């Protein structure tokens, strides 16, 4: 099987999006944007041994590869539309490819996104996805809009993916719910879209709450104060902290892919309504200040967020 047969067999399923004029199979894809919209793009690479384990299932790898890119689009308040896939394979394992491609197809259909092209090559297992979305002109939620007095919110619960990874690395068996958080994160697309016009800034929590919130305050040229007692935690994380007095996982652990966002106080009731509509827990964890620093009440500063280099 050569490269072109591989693409045809595993990554060239029929697409239903009428805005795609030309998808996979040519030198480049062609798609049409409606007037008054902007294109939003994001790229993430997942590498074996860094972002997933060698024995992780191809179904989970495919799902997570797509989900983490969808999460970036969600943080911008955009609607995800198209993606490209660049996959590097150590060997041509048709069983693995079948399982990977079927999961990728199912996930793309679940979130209404279309695969429009990409590349394949030989080497250590790496999956790179470039996700494209659309958003009304000037409506994207950026990191740079937080203002003094804004509330700081997070969706979901924080830290379970990091707890799962810690247990695996220490030879313990994680709970099923923790494995789902690590391998099958939910991109908060509906929430991100609902926050347009309300959130002053937003970021998805991929490298740890502490680090990702710091990106907001740096881009917005503000400060922030949060309290550890307000961070939403699962029962597993509560028990871990009681036993180990270890706040580094919810504050510095990555792979949550929840949204951290800011909004003026007068939008609090609207945000409560959005939480109910989206069926997502949204928790206020602090406020934006003018200090230019991040203050974490109740935290001794031990632990660092994930660094790529």
List keywords for this structure.
alpha+beta; single chain; Phosphoribosyl-aminoimidazole Synthetase, Chain A, domain 2; 60s Ribosomal Protein L30, Chain: A; 309 residues; four-stranded mixed sheet; 12 strands; six-stranded mixed sheet
Q: Mean pLDDT score, rounded?
A: 91
Order of helices and strands: HEEEHEHEEEHHHEHEHHEHEE
Number of helices: 10
CATH superfamily of the largest domain: PurM-like C-terminal domain
- CATH domain topology of the largest domain: Phosphoribosyl-aminoimidazole Synthetase, Chain A, domain 2
Annotation, overall tally of beta strands: 12
Based on secondary structure, the structural category is: alpha+beta
Report the C-alpha radius of gyration, rounded.
20 Å
Low-confidence stretches: none
Percent range of helical residues? 25-40%
Q: What percentage of amino acids are in beta strands? A: 25-35%
What strand line-up does the widest sheet have? 8-10-7-11-9-12
Shape call: globular
Distance between the termini: 36 Å
């Amino acid at each position: 099987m050569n490269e072109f047969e591989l693409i045809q067999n595993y990554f060239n399923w029929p697409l239903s999006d009428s805005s795609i004029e030309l998808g996979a199979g040519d030198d480049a894809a062609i798609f049409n944007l409606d007037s008054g919209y902007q294109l939003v793009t994001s790229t993430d690479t997942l590498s074996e041994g860094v972002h997933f384990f060698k024995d992780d299932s191809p179904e989970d790898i495919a799902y997570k590869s797509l989900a983490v890119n969808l999460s970036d689009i969600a943080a911008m308040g955009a609607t995800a539309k198209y993606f490209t896939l660049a996959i590097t394979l150590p060997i041509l394992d048709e069983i693995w490819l079948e399982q990977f491609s079927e999961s990728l197809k199912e996930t793309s259909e679940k979130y209404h996104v279309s695969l429009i092209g990409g590349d394949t090559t030989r080497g250590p297992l790496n999956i790179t996805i470039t996700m494209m979305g659309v958003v009304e002109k000037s409506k994207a939620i950026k990191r740079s809009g937080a203002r003094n007095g804004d509330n700081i919110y997070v969706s979901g619960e924080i830290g379970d993916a990091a707890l799962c990874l810690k247990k695996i690395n220490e030879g313990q068996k994680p709970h099923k719910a923790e494995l789902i958080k690590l391998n099958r994160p939910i991109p908060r697309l509906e929430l991100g879209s609902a926050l347009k016009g309300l959130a002053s800034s937003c970021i998805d929590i991929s490298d740890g709450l502490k680090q990702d919130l710091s990106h907001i305050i740096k881009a917005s040229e503000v400060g922030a104060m949060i309290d550890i007692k307000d961070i939403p935690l699962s029962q597993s994380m509560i028990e871990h902290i009681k036993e180990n007095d270890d706040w580094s996982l919810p504050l510095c652990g990555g792979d949550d892919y929840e949204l951290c966002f800011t909004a003026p106080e007068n939008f609090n009731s609207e945000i409560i309504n959005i939480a109910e509509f989206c069926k997502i827990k949204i928790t206020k964890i602090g406020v934006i200040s003018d200090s230019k620093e991040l203050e974490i009440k109740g935290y001794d500063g031990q632990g660092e967020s994930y660094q790529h280099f």
